[in-house]
Amino acid sequence: MSGGIEATHAVWEGVIEGPAREIFGEVEHDDSDGGGEKVDAEQFLRDLLADGPLATRQIKADADGAGYAWATVRRAQKALEIVATKGGMKADWAWMLPAAST
Which candidate among 18, 55, 69, 79 keeps its CA 20 to 30 Å from the CA of 101? Predict the structure, then answer.
């Protein structure tokens, strides 16, 4: 059929019940592929912070640009024990790897 519109469609295999936040949380925590989104985000943070502390707003912008949900990045931060520090009243928050905080 020339000039037609091509489209894709989804085939659902059953009903998914529960609040959207809970359903998405389960999907995001699914590590059946050998690592999952959080593990990828952990590596992303290690690479990003390898050269030293970085402002949280810059990390958030970079994570967003790389397609990571901020909640996933925060879970990765906690798993890696990344330290958040603030330099003063008007200073931005910055994250650093734990070895760099000593």
Answer: 69
